[in-house]
Design goal:
The chain has seven helices and twelve strands. The chain is of the alpha+beta class. It has two domains: about 200 residues, no CATH class; about 50 residues, no CATH class. β3 and β4 form a beta hairpin. The chain is elongated, with a radius of gyration of 26 Å.
Length: about 250
Amino acid sequence: MIQTILQALDQAAAEHLPVGARYLLVEQQRTGTGVAPHRYDGSGRWTPIANDNAGTFSYWRLTSPIKEQEVDAAGCYDVFEAVYSLRLVAMVDRSLCPDLIDVARGAATAVRGTDDGIRASLKLRTVDFGVSSVEVNSQRVYTQEFGGTLDVNPDKALVSIDIAVTITGKSICFAPCEGTADYLCGLIEAQTWQRIKGCMTEAQIAAAIADLCVGSSCDFDITVNVNGVFVETIPGVDPCVDNTLNITITA
């Protein structure tokens, strides 16, 4: 579940904090000089995601243990609550983001605006965001994430956003070790076709028609009867193009 939630949050933040590489959940690991964010590579090793050649990047990490409890809800049974305390850290290019305070606050606002989408995608009862904090002082962010002090490249800046996500739903929604749901797919599945179509551009609709209405999956046959008598079958009619059927009856 946490990976799906992070997909939604990261997509929203990316509109305001563009970076070259984006990572979801990472962990702080000790290094020779302090700590640093690492991602697990799946083969028993941790890989640092920030170095002298890392360019611009962003990542998420948990800042405190996940809090879980059963809660009472009128008319509902088996309601479970979990609180995730999350931090987004981004190394951004100042030339792309000259006004760090506004873009960071814009990212925080966009993140908080994902509540309805997350609730629909994961079929949750509620999704609430606690008060978030935004830090744009590069040196303070560096100390919190890496320890010690360092002169950050003046052409770049480190920003961080702290936010708490509280979700409630049936306990089955929190089952561990299930396949990570795709946020976008879940969001689309929860909508009607009319709602989806209303959000699409003309180019997207045209692309969908071109992709879905090709080949035998869309083609159909026409049975031609004249005065109730079978004349012929016209096979393979394409519904995505204009079709004209001319019938001439002679005495």
